[in-house]
Amino acid sequence: MAIQAAPHKFEAFRFNGQDYVPIGDWARANGLHCIWLKRGDELVATNRTTRLVFDVDSHYVEIDGVQVALSFPVANQNGVALVAQFDLDAAIRPLLFPSRYVKPAGIRTICLDPGHGGRDAGNHEGWHYEKIYTLALAGELRDQLRKAGFNVIQTRTRDTYVELPDRPALANQRGADLFVSLHFNATPTGKNEVEGPQTYCITPVGASSTDAQGEGSNHGPTPANRDEDESLLLAYQIQKSLVGNLGANDRGVRRARFAVLRDARMPAILIEGGYMTHPFEGRQIYSTAYRRRMAQAIVKGILAYQKLVLPPPPSVSRAINHHSTKAGNNSSAKHPPGERRQPSSNSAADAGF
Ligand SMILES: [Zn+2]
Question: Is 293 a domain residue?
Answer without folding.
Answer: yes
